[in-house]
Structures are given as structure tokens and as C-alpha cells.
């Protein structure tokens, strides 16, 4: 009983001492720039140069669409994919990590839009350069990828309660610019 009294008294004294102690000053952390001012100036000059007329560091896509809430409120551009090349309209979505195109085997996909956009369906079998991305491919490693029959699939749910799902495919993306002419590059899309 004496030990219980001693323990209780000690705890009460410790709590009282802690409560009577002056409050500690707020913690102050020093903010340091991760990149030096000189490096920031170099980055700024590089960025400025990229935006100058005649800079060939980007490809101009013609952009179409509308921000009107009475329409779809989206922008789209036309890309050319595959061998032989075919044109497809794709939505410019800055809130998503992937660009997707409806495929011919698309179940339940819409076949019309309220925008004046022609919907075309990609057929991987009609492109000699098309291939599915396997589950072991390093590009198949994100939070929204899923594997099915060793093909890298995806499923994304958007804030407006719509969703998209499909299989990642690799194929040639064709670019045409005024200054360089036609070019192709490999690309992965859903």
C-alpha cells in the first residue's frame, strides 16, 4: 500500500512540475534554397529560350474544343498513330497521367459526342507496329495498373464519376512540324 501511495504521489508531483514549467519557445526552422540562385538563373534562361519564336523544342498541336459548361468543357487534338498511320482525336486532360483512345473491342463505349469531333476506334491488329505492354514491363508500375493475361491494364476513376479502363499499348506516334518535317517516336497509351 505504501508503494502505491509513493507512486501516486510521485506521478502527481511530476505532472505538477511539468505543468508549472515555462512553455518552450516555438520551434523555428531555417528555410534554405535547394537550388542556388545561379542555378535558378540558368533554369530561367533555359525556360525563356524554350518559349522564343523559332525554338524547335516542342511540337505544336492544334487545339480544339470549348470551356463552356453547356458543352463537354474539354479540349482535344488530333494525333496520328500506328503503321500505316491513322488519325485519332484525343482529349487534352491535364488532370490525368495517361492518354487513351477507344479500341474496336471497346464494350459499352460511346459512339458520339456533343462536340464536333469524329470518334475513331484504334484496332491494334491493323497496325504492324502495335504491341501490348506486358505486366513485367517497367512502364506497368503505377497505382492504377492491373494485370490480366500478362497484359498491362489500367483503370482510372475521374472526379466527375466517369471512368476509363483498358490495356496499355505501344505504337508509333507520328509528328509533323513545319521546321523539321515528319518524325515518329514510340509511345504508350491506353
TrEMBL record:
Domain Peptidase A1: residue ranges: 75-190
Region forming the signal peptide: 1-20
GO biological process entries: proteolysis
Entry keyword set: Signal
Similarity field: Belongs to the peptidase A1 family.
Domain of life: Eukaryota
MF terms (GO), sorted A to Z: aspartic-type endopeptidase activity
InterPro entries assigned to the protein according to its UniProt record, in alphabetical order: Aspartic_peptidase_A1, Aspartic_peptidase_AS, Pepsin-like_dom, PEPTIDASE_A1, Peptidase_aspartic_dom_sf, TAXi_N
Protein name, per record: Peptidase A1 domain-containing protein
Pfam families: TAXi_N
